[in-house]
């Protein structure tokens, strides 16, 4: 990262900010400031070029047409792909997760190329839309507590050899493939279907992104009282028999 | 509120075809049974029974009326009320004033059997095209479109598209908000459009052009798409400060009891609708002044010896308008959020709301999803208290009138609590 300031790039809020995605940017900023880190948030609209010098890139969820427009513009712009080649930390959520993969089905029913930053591809689910609260156990290699979040998607995301599942659902559908996988990751690129937003429900994931950006194993403690209370309440509500 | 606003007269029923008459009677019986069973006004169940017996009933009932339809994401109940008040200057009005805004509720309201001249009808966004086809309205007011209940609603832009397709053949005069690109897109295929510059504080659902997907340019109050040329039409009517500007450039002061910029906008659109029926802005606005609360919204109530103003905010655009009308710090603010089915079960939208604007207010948080709100406020860097009840919030709140802002079912619960 740059010496002076941690650069958090929020990619295309004009197209991909439908499910409270601003929350992920706000939580990363807040968790960084609580550690007295200098943070600069850069919101990049889809008629602007994506800077390659960011530390953390957030790309959120959106509806079908904006998702296609975002994929087109990101392919043409190449900024995010070049940032990834430089080892940037990237978190894609829902439509943003699909765009990070090889391809997805767009609003016209056609196969739309993504950025190929994650070895995944997305087809359209035949069944009901996946909507509701999710609980998932994270890949042990990441050393994170259980994920909680809310999913709302029709896509089914298949994982290739080049990625690992981010988590395995214990409630909810996740990638929709029926094998319980949720999200995908490799190196410093992460994709998930969870919003809520995901970092507000899982501050440990926000802290992981910060640790990767700072290249440290630990951060000074920062209060998580309200996050913990919310997590406990959501986990209880989601595991309670209906 | 068919039962109270327009008592059955019998005269109107006598003029209905036999099938419609049976349907209206059956609907009334069902509504009465539902009321007896303590299940609200019974208007929806009554309408459902009646519509099942005569699917054309809505069209039949509307046939005798000059119909005005009102639709939007926010403000449709209030605007329906304002238009109804204004049009009473020209004749009796029947209206679904309690907000039962789907076909069954609308049918029930119109079946009140009044000798009304006007039917002023609030319509749920999803049903607008169908209701417009059935009721052949003289005027349709389109106020705004924004994200709402994303876990089950269609895309906001798709809603604009549905309106556009469903209304393109309407004979109605369409009164549309020129400051909302999605509403403009919906209305711009209609034959007769009266454009109203009513403002739209929330912009996050219209950054991409509804026509071509290009990035929208939004300097000041203007908006346009550089790629296809779709742009803000020149308005015939405008809200300027606290005045309605009519098409002849006459300026009329708006003096409402209802607070806030959004209601000034609603009054401006209502004046434009009233003018379609020959009611002048002066007369229309004078009559709108009489409205003090709409279905409990904006009501100032006494509870535990304190004044509390009840404010409903269901979605990010609604919260934004609500923050702009509350009294400044140190006025205490109570926030209550639920995520029941009627609210939408996904709380992610809390992060689209600028709670940072509450800095300096003592803030009290309750409701089913108070912990979601607590995290949101913590990240906003605010001081706040999480409480278990309104009573507890009121006990802890410093002196002064309390502003209570709640989403849909949380608002209904607050009303029940203060009613004792
Ligand atoms: Zn355009």
Present the secondary structure layout:
The complex is a heterodimer of chains A (242) and B (420).
Chain A: E1 6-11, H1 22-34, E2 39-44, E3 56-59, H2 64-77, H3 79-85, E4 89-93, H4 95-100, E5 103-105, E6 111-113, E7 120-124, E8 130-138, E9 147-153, E10 155-159, E11 167-171, E12 181-182, E13 184-186, E14 189-192, H5 198-201, H6 203-214, H7 225-239
Parallel strand pairs in A: 1-2, 1-3, 3-4, 4-14
Antiparallel strand pairs in A: 5-6, 7-10, 8-9, 8-11, 11-12, 13-14
Chain B: H1 2-5, H2 11-14, H3 18-36, H4 43-53, H5 57-62, E1 66-71, H6 76-87, E2 93-95, H7 103-110, E3 118-122, H8 128-135, E4 139-142, H9 156-167, E5 173-177, H10 181-187, E6 192-197, E7 216-217, E8 224-225, E9 237-240, E10 243-245, E11 251-253, H11 261-276, H12 281-288, E12 300-303, E13 306-312, H13 316-323, E14 333-336, E15 363-366, H14 370-379, E16 385-386, H15 390-396, E17 402-406, H16 408-419
Parallel strand pairs in B: 1-3, 1-4, 2-3, 4-5, 5-6, 6-9, 13-17, 14-15, 14-17, 15-16
Antiparallel strand pairs in B: 7-8, 9-10, 10-11, 12-13
Helix pairs in contact in B: 3-4, 4-7, 6-11, 6-12, 8-9, 9-10, 11-12
The complex binds zinc ion (ZN).
Q: Give the CATH architecture of the largest domain in chain B.
A: 3-Layer(aba) Sandwich
The Cα radius of gyration of chain B reads 22 Å
- Tell me the domain tally of chain A: 1
Query: Beta fraction of the residues of chain A?
Result: 25-35%
Structural classification of chain B: alpha/beta
Order of helices and strands of chain A: EHEEHHEHEEEEEEEEEEHHH
Largest sheet of chain A: 6 strands, mixed
Kindly report the name of the CATH homologous superfamily of the largest domain in chain B. Mur-like, catalytic domain
CATH superfamily of chain A: Class I glutamine amidotransferase (GATase) domain
How would the global form of chain B be characterised?
Answer: globular
Sequence stretches where pLDDT stays below 50 over 5 or more residues of chain A: none
Q: CATH fold name of chain A, please?
A: Rossmann fold
CATH topology of the largest domain in chain B: UDP-N-acetylmuramoyl-L-alanine:D-glutamate ligase
Oligomer: heterodimer
Most extensive interface between two protein chains, with residue counts: A-B, 33 and 30 residues
Q: How does the helix and strand content of chain A classify structurally? A: alpha/beta
In round numbers, the mean pLDDT of chain A is 96
Number of helices of chain B: 16
